[in-house]
Amino acid sequence: MKFLLVEDNPVEVKLVEAAFRRHPASESITLETTGDLQTGLELIQSSGPFDLILLDLTLPDSSGIETFRHVYKAAPETAVIVATGTDDEKLALEAMHLGAQDYLVKGRFDLPTLLRVCRYAVERKKNELEIKAANAAMARHERVLTETLESLKKSNEELKATRLQLIQAAKLEVVGRLAAGVAHEVKNPLAMLRMGVDYFLKENRFINKTDTFMLDSMDEAIRRADSVIKEMLDFSSLQKLEMQAGDLNELVKRSLLLMKHELDRRHIDIQLDFDANLPAVYMDKNRLEQVLINLLTNAVHAMRENPKLILRTIACPVEQTGFRVGHRKGDYFQVGETVALLEVHDNGAGIDPEHCEKIYDPFFTTKLNQGGTGLGLSIVKSIMEMHRGFIRIANRPEGGGVTAALILKLNEQVPHV
Questions:
Q1: pLDDT at position 372, please?
Q2: How high is the pLDDT of residue 159?
Q3: SS3 state at 207
Q4: In 3D, which of 341, 339, 336, 340 has the Cα closest to residue 321?
Q5: Which of 18, 267, 357, 411 could serve as a FRET partner for 166 with CA atoms 20 to 30 Å apart?
Q6: What is the DSSP letter of 322?
């Protein structure tokens, strides 16, 4: 074991040296001595670590509690016993409060007492360090356990959400099949009812005004039912596109009109930059409207202060090769081909870089607690691919927001039979 004595009184030094020589294991003990604080600190740095430091609080170059503070800072894992005069016991107790293991009052202890106090001090410090290490390990384990529990909780919530989405998807599939069957079964009876109503309305000489009013009401109800049936048939054929030439600018205006309430409620500034000479685009208007409303909804939810949306359309040539762009037969576009470009710019928070590769994954969402399903962009991408076009979503280079770009074929470039 290595001990350090910092004491400027030669008599006290000899007393301590004599005590250690009388120790049964004196051959295994190394004692170094110094008479000032600065040399003691240098020995701690050069000869340490020590198992025990005997420290006089009154030295030529330091006195009082600051002497202990310097030593404890230099050797926080070493047991320290402070030595004081008869009038400084209060000072010694303060040193113990700050981390000293024990204290001795000069002139009031014998050699056996000195050896016993040293032995106990080393043991107490060892126990203190073991307890501190155990507490630190326990804190680490608790932190890991907390993080694991949080991760499990999050995974469980995501699993529940995914399960609900799968159940919903299954329901939609069943509803789609039922819708197709029910629609066909109901359309014929509705047609017969409508024919009957038309007949009695035309033969108005047989009915009075009240009867006419009732027949008109029945005719309106039949029309509404017929409209619902048509929507059910549309729902049951989601994978079928009705492609035709369309005005992309007008489609954007119609989509904004459908979202007018939400845009006005959030006081969103809308800026339109349309190409007035944009050729007709080959598209399914309803499905493309669905795409645009999805993108607008995402943009609206991403913006907070001074929300602003910029929608831009332009006809431009494809300049770079990439996904579905090249010279192969199966590519959607050829380099140099003129396409219709629709861009939606927002000034929201942008996309976390680590999420950029996941935004099209089914069920991936950063808005789980806000009602997000994670299906919107995957459906958008599927619809764009069915159009033989594609979508590109990225953070704006100038910062502050996201740009969603839709690239579509012009009608004049689509072969018609």
A1: 47
A2: 75
A3: coil
A4: 336
A5: 357
A6: B
Which residues have C-beta within 8 Å of that of residue 288, sequence separation ≥ 6? 246, 251, 383, 387, 408
User: Which three-class secondary structure string do you get for 127-181?
Assistant: HHHHHHHHHHHHHHHHHHHHHHHHHHHHHHHHHHHHHHHHHHHHHHHHHHHHHHH
Cβ-based neighbours of 380, under 8 Å, separated by 6 or more = 290, 291, 294, 295, 391
- 100/168 same-domain check: no
**CATH number of the domain residue 102 falls in:** 3.40.50.2300
* Domain encompassing residue 10: 2-109
Task: Name the phi and psi angles at 4, rounded to 5.
Answer: -125, 125
Q: Which residues pair with 391 in a beta bridge?
A: 406
Q: How far apart are CA 396 and CA 300, in angstroms?
A: 16
At residue 119, the pLDDT reads 85
Cα–Cα dist 402/182, whole Å: 43
Is 278 inside any structural domain? Answer: yes
359 within a domain of the structure (yes/no): yes
Query: Where are any strands of DSSP class E within 276-408?
Result: 281-283, 308-317, 325-326, 333-334, 338-346, 390-395, 402-408
Do 248 and 272 share a domain, yes or no? yes
pLDDT for res 249: 95
Q: Are 343 and 302 within 8 A, CB to CB? A: no
Dist CA 79 CA 101 (whole Å): 6
CATH number where 196 lies: 1.10.287.130
Give me the pLDDT at residue 269, please.
93
Distance CA 105, CA 84 (A): 5
Closest of 339, 342, 360, 347 to residue 399, by C-alpha: 347
Q: How far apart are CA 82 and CA 30, in angstroms?
A: 19
Give the residue ranges of the chain where pLDDT is below 70. 25-26, 86-87, 158, 161-162, 164-184, 204-207, 227-228, 230-240, 320-331, 355-358, 360-376, 399, 412-417
In angstroms, the Cα distances linking 302 to 264, 268, 299, 372, 415 are 16, 12, 5, 12, 39
Q: Domain count for the chain, please give it.
A: 3
Q: Assess whether 326 and 374 both reside in one domain.
A: yes
Per-residue tokens: 202: 């035309």
Q: Domain end: 188, 209, 236, which one? A: 236
Kind of pairing between the strands at 390-395 and 402-408:
antiparallel
The alpha carbon torsion through 122, 123, 127, 133 (nearest 10 deg) reads 40
